[in-house]
Amino acid sequence: MSTEKLTFMNSWKTDALSGFLVFLIALPLCLGISAASGFPPVAGILTAIVGGLVVSFFTGSELTIKGPAAGLIVIALGAVQELGHGDAMLGYKLTLAVIVVAGIVQIGFGIIKSGVLGDFFPTSAVHGMLAAIGIIIITKQAHVLLGVKPVSKELFGQIAEIPHSFSVMNPEIAIIGILSLVILFGLPLFKNKYVKMVPGPMVVLLIAVPLGMYFDLGHEHTYLFLDHHQYALGPKFLVTLPAQLSSAITFPDFSQLFSATSIKYIVMFALVGSIESLLSAKAVDSLDKFKRKSNLNKDMVAVGIGNTISGLIGGLPMISEIVRSSANANNGARTRWANFFHGGFLLLFVALVPDLIHQIPLAALAAMLVYTGFRLASPLEFIKTYRIGKEQLLIFLITVVTTLATDLLIGVGAGIVTKMVLHLFNGVPVRWFFTPFLTIQKNADGAYEVDVKHSAIFANFIGLKKRLESLESSHTVILNFSNTKLVDHTVMHNIEVLQMDFARKGRTLTVIGLENHVASSDHPTSARKLASKTT
Q: Which member of 61, 283, 316, 412 has the lowest number of beta carbons within 10 Å of its beta carbon?
């Protein structure tokens, strides 16, 4: 663990370089996420600028990058469509009002120290939610990538239409989209360290923009393909930006703020955005070579401030975004100034060369989103979940299917209910669902031993964690599961994270008493069930 004191003066060079590299990744993703969300493309850039230039001064996390995220596309698009009833501009302005209030709610979350909610939600349900989001993104962007507008407005209808879209695709648009997809999937296969330093999205733009110019997408025209079918091309296949950034500012419409639809989306933005931010911040902490731990409550307030401002000027909702944050950490960023620089570079680029952004084909952005969606819903995610345990796959699949059939909140709720039902079948008493039953005693050597009775499950882990962290006076804490009937996967996973947190503070958290438990699989964080009754 480094003891170097980090300041702006001794970090700005590495932070500026990392901020620039993240900017190269963020620019196309911001545009693509905006377009996929039913917002003007510039809205995502406004969000990232606010996330960099403003939120950096409030954040509780040194290395996270704040900006729009693919995980919120589904909510944003749903809000625009439901609130606007076919009027895209009205839906956009009404959604901005929802984002403002959701931001205020997130500020409240942070103030009441609800950052611990990141430890509550079952891991498999969260991953199932993200996989469902990935499937939705792939479905909607596959048609854009091929230059086709689907007939169906429903998700399952659009899934069914994908083969038809391939059969009637616009060839020149599809060339741009498919080639972009090949680049994104192909680049990670190269092991050369210099190739790995080049951001995939920038390589896509370096190929797609000249192709768009070659195909003359900037002008309305038609062309014959194989001399038997005529296709139309024009500026509608390119990113549209206002001539000046100031003219992109759009104010929210609060006229329907108290409608049932608005309230539903306020809850969805606030809850899902907060969960994603918390999970991202915790994941990026593990990449920090200085072993710092994010203040999740402070970071929640910062994200809330950012969303409130973003909604007021026409931007998308923001989170601590995992892809850009991971790139930031891997690029050698040292402080929050990297996030600031990333926002500054975006502002300069959009203000000085908006015409260049207008040359970006939408098919290239769709390819980036399809790639992002595939990473969220990769078959490996299903396999990895199965290896943790069959019951985890069941929770995962129920969350995915329910989310696809309804919405994110109901999907996650279904995952949580499924896990609770499984715990009931495993004999967990209802009275210990949300409150851990444990005893604490101090050993002769000064170590505290925490003996957990009945169960250690996702719903009561927050209480268990608080008790463990309250034992600050002891260098060593022993967590004894000898008398615990069930230790679920979420707790096993969170204990691993907690052990790393203890290690950062120079303390030790030791787990004992699992030798008589039967694991649901060979995975180190699989659920454990006591082989014979001891309580």
A: 283
DSSP state of 514: -
In angstroms, what CA-CA distances link 437 with 122, 450, 525? 20, 10, 22
Does residue 213 surpass a pLDDT of 60? yes
Indicate the DSSP class of residue 508.
Answer: E
Identify whether 381 is part of a domain.
no
Q: CA 291 to CA 274: how far, in whole Å? A: 23
Tell me, letter by letter, the H, E, C secondary structure of 315-375. CCCCEEEHHHHHHHHHCCCCCCHHHHHHHHHHHHHHHHCHHHHCCCEHHHHHHHHHHHHHH
Range of the domain at 405: 388-425
In the block, tokens 């952005």 appear at: 365
Which one of 374, 400, 415 terminates a domain?
374
Counting every residue written for the chain, the total comes to 535
Q: pLDDT tens digits for 23-75?
A: 999 999 999 999 999 999 999 999 999 999 999 999 999 999 999 998 899 99
Q: Do residue 193 and residue 280 come from a single domain?
A: yes
Sorted by sequence, the CB contacts under 8 Å of residue 177 that are 6+ apart come out as: 144, 145, 146, 147, 361, 363, 364, 366, 367
Mean pLDDT of the chain, nearest integer: 92
Residue 263 lies in a domain: yes
Same-domain pairing of 410 and 325:
no
Q: Measured between alpha carbons, how far is 188 from 184 in angstroms, rounded to an integer?
A: 7
Among 339-348, 424-433, 483-492, the least confident range? 424-433
Judged against a pLDDT cut of 70, whether residue 4 lies above it is answered with: no
Residue 87 lies in a domain: yes
Q: Is the dihedral of CA 342, 347, 350, 353 positive or negative?
A: negative
Give the C-alpha separation, 264 to 351, whole Å: 36
Tokens representing 149? Answer: 């507008």
Q: Which residues pair with 231 in a beta bridge?
A: 223
Phi first, then psi: give them for residue 254, nearest 5 degrees. -95, 10
Say yes or no: 394 and 356 in one domain.
Answer: no
In the structure encoding, which two tokens stand for residue 108, read together? 């409240």
The 3-state secondary structure of 410-479, one letter per residue? HHHHHHHHHHHHHHHHCCCCHHHCCCCEEEEEECCCCCEEEEEEEEECHHHHHHHHHHHHCCCCCCEEEE
Contact 478, 508 (CB under 8 A): no
Q: Look at the chain and report how many structural domains it folds into.
A: 3
Do the domain assignments include residue 130? yes
Largest CA distance in the chain: 89
Q: What is the CATH number of the domain that holds 507?
A: 3.30.750.24
